Amino acid sequence: MSKANKKLFIKTWGCQMNVYDSRRMADVLRPLGYEEVDGPEDADMIIMNTCHIREKATDKVFSEIGRLREHKKAKEQKGGRMLMAVAGCVAQAEGDFILERAPEIDMVFGPQTYHELPEMVLKASGMIGRPRIVNTDFPPESKFDLLPEENASQGVCAFLSVQEGCDKFCTFCVVPYTRGSEFSRSIKEIMEEAKILIEAGAKEITLLGQNVNAYHGEGLNGGQADLADVIYEISKFPEIERIRYSTSHPRDMDDHLIEAHGEIEKLMPFLHLPVQSGSDKILKSMNRKHGRDLFFEIIEKLRASRKDIVFSSDFIVGFPGETQQDHEDTLDLVRRTNFASAYSFKYSPRPGTPAANMQGLIREDIKSERLQELQALINEQQYAYNQTCLGQILPVLLDRKGHKTGQLMGRSPYNHSVHVTAPDRLLNQIVDIRITHAAPNSLSGEVVLVEDMPEAAE
Ligand code: SAH
Ligand code: SF4
Ligand code: F3S
Question: Which pLDDT value is given to residue 2?
């Protein structure tokens, strides 16, 4: 197989799972001579790793194909060849339709087929004709068993996928269709991948899954393990200083996991716990399998377990049948919980999901109004929370350079984005930062006592 350097450009949309998958696709393609590059110019292969969650996300893919087409043409005019592929959740959902609508696309393949990429690439780059490939199977084997051991260096903050797919079937959501049914990797396999990430410099690991706290993989002694077991095992690596997990479902927040928050110092005191709505009626119609009281109960238990824990969430406004009262209930849930941050979206009907056929559609202007009102409340809470950090000293894992020269950026334990003026040698370190400024979306501060740090004495 040719080891000649070929340029691979991957563009990623959607959730962290897609970010992780893009890294793994680069790993699979490296032995075929593909090296990742930062832009599409002159690439030998472009992969668009796509998201189908909302209509807007899907539209973006087709407009991006239009833009990237120009690069393909330019390459062909120079006598070269560029393979263009659509991967991810739009690929899974739209399959053949993408080939019909976009003649320049050579390959369409879903999230469960990435281990078959080398074969697909060899076929698509066939010398005779121009075979086009669609692969949206859910193969019986797990891709995790067949992906190469090497895991492209993700640096100091790494993602590790422990669970994939979803069996919850919330009525608005495409994920159970695009990612397939729930699957958990064994703890042994997870630990092996963690070791590789540590060798590549990881100090923080985020355990990923579409429904990560539904994790139920094989434990080290053969029995069934839960997410808390995975976290306990990962916390034993001395190199790992911080653990996070995403995305969790309130229904799967069991006592073992809640307890882990109190016992494992390395488990960061920030939890993204999507609730979607504060109205029992809407939660039922969304098939979320719990009411608002369970949410409050879990928040309370988690706060009792880990005093300083803060929360973020996801909300959908304008779900079919949502009355003004239902919306008020959501605002009330937000007021009572007090979030450190949260995402909110207008309901977007997705073809093939049960909610797409529901009565009681909400007018676009009402959705916009409700979204604005909810976002204003969330922003207010986030800003107020950020203000409480003024004067505090927070340990920040400085994982990247800032936009300004001499600036580094990182995350606090509570997931704030923190900017600081600091020398490059502090990159990839956890550094105490005194917070001097709190903006609505980020904090900034100054390094505390850097002269006393061993690094500085060298
Ligand atoms: N697994 C996670 C969420 C995955 S999707 C969970 O169980 O909550 C990420 C977020 O997108 C969801 O939390 C939801 O708020 C939003 N979302 C999903 N489908 C949507 C739709 N049809 N319209 C609007 N927002 C949607
Ligand atoms: Fe979608 Fe619901 Fe599954 Fe989350 S739990 S991925 S919202 S079906
Ligand atoms: Fe989007 Fe698929 Fe993730 S639809 S949110 S990329 S699971």
Answer: 47
